[in-house]
Structure to design on (810 residues):
C-alpha cells in the first residue's frame, strides 16, 4: 500500500480524490499496489464531506509521516507550493503536480533534486490538462530531435476565438459569456493576455530542448485586440485565428512566442475548437504529430495527475524523468523570425492599395465588401524586423496578425 | 554500450539504421548509454552499402551473442518473425518490433515471456507508425477506464478516400494512382479490405481492455464499395467518409468493427486526411483525446521502433509493459450495436420515398439533383439487426454506410 498526501482541495484536488475513488480497482492494478489518500492539506474544513477525516491544516504532518511516499501538489501559484514541493522531494517523497507556474519557474531545480534523491517530480497535468504530452515528450519521442512545438494551450482563449468565429461577435461580448459559463475567470488577464500559454510553452520548450527556457523571455501577445472584422478577413482567406504558443528551432536558434495567428485548413491545429487544446510537434525523423484533448477541467486534469501518481508508485526508487538542465537557453530575438503578415488598414488619401503594393511588393490584397473604409493584405515572407520597418511608414494600420503556414 | 541486432533490412530496417545514425548523440544521451548496431539479419547482401559489414544470414549468430541485449524485428509477417522473437525473449534479449501481424497474433504470449524474463517486448511501431499510442495507453492513460478507441489506422485507404472526396474520382482510378505513387501495394487487399486496420484495432483493444481480442472475431468491411456518388451525399450532409477501426465498451460489452463510416465535422477524426493516421480515445475521466501523425513511412515508423529501443535500453532488466492477459475477450455481436445508417436506394415503382418513410419512420431524405434515378436517406438510431431486417424488405439498395456520431 502506498499512502499519498494531497496539497489543496480545490477543483483539481477534489478531482484527484474523485478519480482515485471512481477507478480505484484499475488504478491499483496498474500501479501494482493499493494507493490510499492519507491526508488532504487545506486551510478550510469540509464538515459535510467525507474528506474531512483526512483534512490537515499543517503541511508538516504530511512531511514528517514516512508512510507518505507521494505528494500531490494541486494548490497552484509559486508559494507556498514551491516550499512544500521542495521539502517533500528533499524528504524522499515523489511529487505529482498540476502547477504550471511552479514548473515553469522551478522545474529544472526540482527535477534535479528528484534525480539526486532517486525519486520523481512529475507534472503531466501542468500543460494541456488531460492530454498526455509531458510523458510522450520524455519517453516516446526519444528517437527524434524536436524542432517545433506549437500548441493551442489555453482553453479559455480558444473558446472565445471559436465563439467569435462562429457567431460573429466581438471579444468583449464573448468574454462576458465565457465568464458566465465559468470558462473564464473574473480576472481573465492570465488567459486573455497569453500569460498562461506562455508558461506552458516555456515548460514544453525546456523539455524538448533540454535546457531552461525562461518564460519571461518569451514574446507574448494576447487576443484582446482581435475583432469581429479580423475574423471576416480570416474566413475570406480560408483561415482561422488561434492563439498559438510556439517554439521553433531554426539553424540552432530557438524562436519562441505566444500570439494570435492565422492558420490554414491544412494545418492540424486548424480545427481545434472551443475549450479543446492540442499540441503539434515536429521531429526530424518522426515528421508531424499532434496530441489533442481537454486542456483543462476538473476530471481531465485530475486524470493526468493520477497517471503521474501511478507512474510514481511504479517507480518509487527510480528516477524516470529525463534531462532538463538548469542551463539557460538564450532564445533568438523574434525580430529575425520570418513569416507572412496579415494587415488591416484604413483607406485614406495617404494610404492606398497602390502605396501598399509599392511598399511590400507581391502582396495579396483582400477586400470585404461591407468594410468599405478599409482593406487587408498579406505580405510576402519577411522578417519581423523588416515588416516593422515597412509598417512604420504606413498610416492607419488597424491590426496585424501573423500567419502560420 | 548496448549492442543491438536488427532483423530485416527492408524499408523499416534501413530506416532504423538511418535514425540511429542521424540522431546518434541525442539517442545515446536519452538511453543513458551508447547504442550500437552489431548485426543486421537479411537473406540478401548489400555490397555497396556500409551496412554490409554487419550483415549476417543466420539468426543464430545474433541469438548466441550475449552482447546483443536488444533485438529489433522489422521483417513483417508471422513467420519466421515469431520464432526469432520468441527465441530472443527466451534468451533474455528485449525485443522492439513494428510487426502488427505478429503482435495481433502472439502479443499476449510474447508479453508474458518478456515479463517472466524481466525484459521487454515493445511494439510502439505496430500501430499508427510514428504516432505514440502504445506507450500512452500503457503508461499515460492509467487513471482511466478506456471505453472507446476509434482510429483511422490505415494510411493507404485514408489517402484513397481523401482523394476521392477532393477530386470526385472513383475508387478504382484513385487506387491506381496510389499504386503509382507507392502509397498502395500492387496487391492492395490487406489495406483496402480493412485487414490491416483490423489487426491494429485488435492490438489497441487488447491493450485497452487488458484481454486478448482476436482479430478474426472483428467484423471487417473495406472501402472497395465506396463510390464517387456516395461522396456526393456525404458532402451534402456535411460529413466525410473514413475507414474507422473502432472498439467501444457499452454496458460491459465490447463492440469492435472496421468499416467505412460517415463522420461529421465536430468529430476530431473528421479532418484527418491523406496518408495521416489518428487515434481517438475516450476515457471515463479524461474525456476525449486524440493522437495524430504519420501512420506509416520509413522514418516515422523507424522513429517509433528506435523509441522502443531507447526504452528497452533504459529498462534492461525491468519489465515495463502492463497487463494484456491471454484470456480471450468475447466481443459482443455487432447486430446489437446501435447507430444511424445512411442508405442509397434506386428509385422505382416498388421503392419510393413514401415506402422508406413508412418503413423506417423519421428518416432524413437526401436528394442530389444530378442523381435523378436514386435517393438517399438517414435512418433513426437503431440496432444493426433491426436495420438489416428492415433493409431486407427494400429493393434496390445501392449502398449502406454507417454513421459515427
Amino acid at each position: 500500500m502506498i499512502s499519498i498526501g494531497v496539497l489543496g482541495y480545490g477543483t483539481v484536488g477534489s478531482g484527484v480524490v474523485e478519480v482515485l475513488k471512481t477507478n480505484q480497482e484499475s488504478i491499483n492494478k496498474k500501479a501494482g499496489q493499493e494507493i490510499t489518500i492519507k491526508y488532504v492539506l487545506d486551510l478550510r474544513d469540509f464538515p459535510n464531506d467525507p474528506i474531512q477525516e483526512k483534512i490537515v491544516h499543517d503541511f508538516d504532518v504530511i512531511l514528517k509521516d514516512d508512510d507518505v511516499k507521494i505528494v500531490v501538489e494541486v494548490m497552484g501559484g509559486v508559494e507556498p507550493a514551491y516550499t512544500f514541493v521542495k521539502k517533500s522531494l528533499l524528504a524522499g517523497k515523489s511529487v505529482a503536480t498540476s502547477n504550471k507556474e511552479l514548473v515553469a519557474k522551478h522545474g529544472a531545480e526540482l527535477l534535479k533534486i528528484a534525480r539526486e534523491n532517486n525519486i520523481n517530480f512529475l507534472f503531466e497535468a501542468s500543460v494541456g490538462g488531460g492530454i498526455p504530452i509531458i510523458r510522450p515528450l520524455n519517453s516516446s519521442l526519444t528517437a527524434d530531435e524536436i524542432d517545433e512545438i506549437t500548441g493551442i494551450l489555453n482553453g479559455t482563449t480558444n473558446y472565445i476565438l471559436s465563439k467569435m468565429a462562429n457567431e460573429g461577435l466581438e471579444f468583449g461580448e464573448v468574454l462576458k459569456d465565457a465568464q458566465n459559463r465559468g470558462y473564464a475567470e473574473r480576472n481573465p488577464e492570465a488567459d486573455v493576455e497569453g500569460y498562461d500559454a506562455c508558461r506552458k510553452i516555456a515548460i514544453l520548450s525546456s523539455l524538448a530542448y533540454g535546457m531552461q527556457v525562461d518564460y519571461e523571455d518569451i514574446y507574448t501577445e494576447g487576443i484582446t485586440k482581435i475583432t469581429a472584422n479580423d475574423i471576416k478577413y480570416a474566413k475570406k482567406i480560408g483561415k482561422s485565428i488561434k492563439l498559438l504558443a510556439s517554439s521553433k528551432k531554426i539553424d540552432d536558434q530557438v524562436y519562441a512566442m505566444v500570439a494570435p495567428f492565422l492558420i490554414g485548413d491544412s494545418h492540424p491545429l486548424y480545427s481545434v475548437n472551443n475549450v479543446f487544446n492540442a499540441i503539434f510537434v515536429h521531429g526530424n525523423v518522426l515528421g508531424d504529430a499532434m496530441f489533442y484533448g481537454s486542456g483543462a477541467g476538473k476530471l481531465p486534469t485530475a486524470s493526468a495527475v493520477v497517471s503521474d501518481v501511478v507512474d510514481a508508485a511504479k517507480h518509487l526508487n527510480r528516477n524516470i524523468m529525463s534531462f532538463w538542465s538548469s542551463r539557460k537557453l538564450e532564445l533568438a530575438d523574434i525580430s529575425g523570425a520570418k513569416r507572412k503578415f496579415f494587415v488591416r488598414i484604413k483607406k485614406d488619401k495617404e494610404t492606398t492599395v497602390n502605396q501598399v503594393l509599392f511598399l511590400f511588393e507581391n502582396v495579396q490584397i483582400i477586400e470585404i465588401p461591407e468594410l468599405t473604409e478599409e482593406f487587408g493584405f498579406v505580405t510576402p515572407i519577411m522578417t519581423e524586423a523588416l515588416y516593422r520597418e515597412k509598417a512604420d511608414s504606413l498610416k492607419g494600420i488597424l491590426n496585424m496578425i501573423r500567419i502560420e503556414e
